[in-house]
Amino acid sequence: MLEILIIAIALSLDAFGVALALGSRIKLLFKEKVILIFSFGCFQFLLSLLGAILGGYINNHLFDVTDYLSGAILLFLGLYLLKEGYQNQAEEVQYKEFNLLTYILLGVTVSVDALGVGFSILHDLSLVTMLNNSLLIGFITSIITMVALIIVNQIRDFVLIERYADYFAGLILIILGLAIII
Fold first, then answer.
1. Gyration radius (Cα) of the chain, Å
2. Is the model more confident about 19 or about 69?
3. Residue 81 near residue 170, CB atoms below 8 Å
4. Sign of dihedral through CA atoms 3, 73, 166, 26?
5. Terminal CA-CA length for the chain
6. Are 144 and 12 in contact, with CB atoms under 8 Å apart?
7. How far apart are CA 85 and CA 100, in angstroms?
């Protein structure tokens, strides 16, 4: 359970950083905040569950998903987030128009890593446990996104957290990946 909580927090740091970035650049309406919270949490849930089901299918029907493969996937995701953090540091994205496609793209973008985590960590669990863990990941992401949107007015000029969220998440996933491999 502790491992899933740590993973959920690491996965939600992308959503936290994006929510801070959005809230610091534009004034979001209450409705937009609620939709962002729902979008980020929902896509974290859906993609982690999809990854778990896909990983379970591959594990049961094609080849054994070993701890080495699971650890390597987490390690890769961690390195990917470090790369994203480096690239995001150099660019400043402005989101001006919010429509359904924007919410979907933002939700999927902050949740792609959940697919790999579901595949590598949740694949060998029962369907009910996969569902519960994925729900927890989505719920934690929703809560952390909500916190970001609440505190953004107090830290509007404090971009340190936004800038380094991918680094923190990447390091957590790299540590978990290495722990699984070793």
1. 16
2. 19
3. yes
4. negative
5. 20
6. yes
7. 26
